[in-house]
Amino acid sequence: MEADPIREHELMMTRRQFFGRARLGVGTAALAGLLGPAFSAGPNQGTTHHRSRAKRVIYLFMEGGPSQHDLWDYKPKMREFAGAELPPHIRDGQRVTGMSKGTLKVMPSEYSFSQYENHDRGIWVSELLPHTAKVVKDLCVIHSVHTEAINHDPAITYIQTGSQIPGRPSLGAWLSYGLGSENSDLPSYIVMHSQGTQQGTSLFGRLWGSGFIPSNHQGVIFRGGEEPVLYLNNPKGVLRSQRRHQLDALAAINQEHYRDFGDPGILARLEQHEMAYRMQAAVPELMDLSEESGSTWKLYGEKARTPGTFEACCLNARRLAERGVRNIQIFHRGWDQHDNLRTELPAQCKDVDRGCMALITDLKRRGMLEDTLVVWGGEFGRTAYSQGEYGSDSYGRDHHPRCFTMWMAGGGIKGGITYGQTDELGYNILDGDRNPLVGEHQPTKHHFTPGAVHVHDLNATILHLLGIDHTKLTYRYQGRDFRLTDVHGHVVRDLLA
Amino acid sequence: MKPLFPPALGISLFGARRLYSSFSVFIALAGVAAAAKTPKPDFAREVLPILSDKCFVCHGPDAEADELKLTHYEEAVRLRDGTQAINPEEFKDSLLLERIADLEDPMPPVDEKPLIESEREILENWVLSGAEYAKHWSFEEPQRDARFNSVDAFVKADLRANGLDFSPEADLRTLVRRASLVLTGLPPDAESMEVIASSQDPYAFDTFVDQLLQSEGYGEHRARYWLDAVRYGDTAGLARDTRRGLYPYRDWVIQAFNDNLPIDQFITWQLAGDLLPDPSLEQQVATGYVRMNPTTNEGGSIPEEFQAKNNFDRVENLGTVFLGLSMQCARCHTHKYDPISQTEYFQLLAFFNNTAEKPLDGYKYDLPPVEKAPRDIADWKRFKQLKSLGSTLSGDQVLELAEIECRMSTTLVAEEGDPRETFLLERGDYLSPSGSPLQPGVIDAIGRMPNDAPRNRLGLAQWLTAPDNPLVARVLVNRLWQQVFGVGLVRTPEEFGLQGEHPTHPELLDFLALEFQSSGWDQKAILRRLVLSKAFRQSSARRLDIDDPENRLYARGPSFRLDAEVIRDSTLFAAGVLDPFMGGEGVKPYQPPGMWESIGHRKSNTRVYVPDTGPKVYRRSIYVYWKRASPHPMMTIFDAPNRESACAGRSRTDTPLQSLALLNEPQRIYSARTLAESMVDSQETDEALVNVLFETLAGREANQTEQIACVSLLEKTKSAYLADPSLAESLLEIGEGQRNETLDPVEVAAWTQVIVAVMASDPFILLY
Q1: Residue A243 and residue B663: Cβ atoms within 8 Å?
Q2: Residue B81: other Cβ atoms inside 10 A
């Protein structure tokens, strides 16, 4: 092939731009472009709107709506109301789902709570979470998260994408779009589905999907078992050395095509083939737990050896975080106890309790907790009143949007505190003077209410900790600059360390 | 209804048809002194995008009555507190100029979107040259540019203006492949390629294009784009994501395109087939469009809430698919940028609010109203044939028709039910209806509803297809252009409003839109015109003499990565395993186990993916079962949307997952093996076989680099397999279908690897 100096130069420039960007880890990141010339990145700061407090996030999503009454929001006074009709002034005209019919009888938690020391006035934790209780000094437990949605599909779509109606990018996709990746061998946004005891409810691709932003920002699912990433393994009968030869042939063909057509996309694809090849080595290395020490197994427990368990997912999350993956989400299903709460809820807790503790402890031991944000919670809470026959073995609780408990830890979060308070029945959020925020005072997405954390506020705060201003991370689609937080959301400063 | 922008004074962005009222002429004269020196920016192309993007957030259509609106002239010159944003007496004394130049307290404020210097300059020039307003281009009816009468004339004029000309025509083989992929989503077969390549007929390509337009693959390929736009899926999409009956709608779309059903009727049938006099079965099946919104029956869902949400979805899909407008803003408040009031949103919604189906789907496959329709396309064809014979059917034919009817499938359709009152919902909240009930109505700024049009979905369709609707033909023609050239003339195919991109070739877009309408909405004619144009036929190699990376000038031919479906279908086609069977229930080719189980609801009837076997799994991808919560990974990995909401144009990304899928997915390995078996059975040399391979996959012989790369890969692979033949055996076990045991496994396995690599290479997966 004859040398063509101009073409060669062009090729080099394109390559330099491409690989240069890829090396900086912002090959797909938006911030670099969005911030404009006024922005200057400090050392080790990456390209963010402000100094980030967390370099990465591990989001433990409890799909279905864990019962705050039985886990976190201790209401001893509820016993006095046990079996009584929910007082109308408490219900405050709240719409209830089509499943709550007839009388709404107050159902106090049947589980005992103990008080644990934290960095505040102590915190009450249910006997169902004995392991998590050990790390409360690192947790910021928020009792006052609220949402408008009262059914799973809209609610989980809302908290994950900022809209109840499908079609928008997920939180993880926004982070991938905003932050790019630190690791050139692994995807920037990884999703795991932990296989627990209940598989009663559904997940959707949209929860980690990219909506209208380019689809390379969608979450990549890491699955339990032989092939953690779809189509990761070479077909049987194809050796890694042979794959190398295949890729070399492919590269020669593609480079020739580039020479003829000059489309820089061809170079981009060349790099993706190489990344795939590296991923084929990086993922098995990641999943190979043989190097983990005895203390790891002691911490996470033997269940962590079974792929797909929550503990295994947590251990993987830590290993991914160590390798520079910034954006990790574990979905644990089955927290939808409309009935059979007595059997299902303890099982759900048993699924996740130890993993949560182990992850926090592990990150802390490794000095990673300070720049890793860990988030735990579901799409809404559950009602103070029972569903099904009151007090029967099969009783449960319905969906409750007005307040529910989530916790955050690590990366820039004030650990060892609780935030937000709810009334004696755990039904409404209270203001600082313990007045119920009901009627026209009910917190909404439209205004920030101190003490209350709307799901948009939660997402704004998560982005903030990762160095992103939620009002500035936008993507233009259909002529509008869309944001994760729509036109709402406030950073909850009281949660920040 | 009170018009949002009273057209009384004639100079409104949205309301009036003519720009130059006597008033504005007077204004223009008053500004003449300044205008003499000041370049006058094009309002629609240069000024309005700035106003919309930077100013309308506060001074747009939804500004309060006592606040400054910059949406039209009368508002901009109105005296407020003794000042005027634009001073028509002395344009240079306009407050707007002062404020945008104010360094300490600039407009827009620093925490909004500040103006950049070039924008400030345009606004200044605009005000100084008379501050003339015009309508946003897409709300004006398309105008014919009398100077030109072909696609190429428009493109060439633009090239000339930049001192350029078209690239030379691509070689015929490239062109044949390109046209075939664009029109049918499949590569040409070797025979057609040879016939054309060796033909002396100067019109051989034209003839070939006509053949492509007549082929069944044409409608299958076109339908795929349509299904993306209307969010077709085989499942409900929400909650348990259960099965539901709609695939006869998909089969109808394919046939409608193949039959070249005029697109105005294509639209009308989908929106209102049931309201046509004595509707045919096809017309009723087409109304599946109205039923396409995701539905739920999640425990505890409140019917009124989903009656509202289902309708939001319909209005917003209609906006994107036909009008190229985002309606979503107007659900909660008057649109910030476009002339769509919240009242109009709910008037539009009222067209859909009376449909008969329940708002919650009961997790049913056949939530009424439903129809029974032929179970696949062969049955459809025969059914229509027999029906057209009317009462002259023979005894056997009566029997045959009965058999077809007996094996029909259920499909969801639209029908009018009991009327419901429609209210404006404050902030889009179904719990906050406000005012008095609204009658169905259309958007004032966009065409007119014909006087005799009924106030129902049929009238809605008449509004969309009326000759004076400025958007529909443009929006649809733009998407056809996008299918052919990879990008639209408007590069934001989902957004033709003020915030969308201006067309690269506005006069060409108008020309095509008018041609489309005047040809009787003939889609094949438009595509034929595009594919036969010089713009399409030129070489797609990058030009070093032009800095135009996005090809906005069309100084080279199209070039893009093929879509998911085309990649899969081309692979099956090249291997000779594509099953040509058309229509029928969605098929389930192999996918990695556990994908549905890991997300599916315990009680969902789509919790477990049971792969099909036999030829079904090699059908075209348009027939692959579409579970909205988890579409087939070979689709989503290559940028297919999940079909929960409208997609007017897919993103095209490059990811490592695509590399893994291209090189490891079992159906691809199987396809490569099948092709390998057909090749090694001959006595040709390796070099000759590499040529055969490239002829099959790229429509041409291999070049020297490709020859060397392939032969070298073949040799290395062979030596590894000779060292351990059991490896070759394991590779050949992948996929179903009988192996040809008479062939040397080492040879077949080595070729399989070569073919897999070439099938993953850019000459195969790109259009160029």
Answers
A1: yes
A2: 6
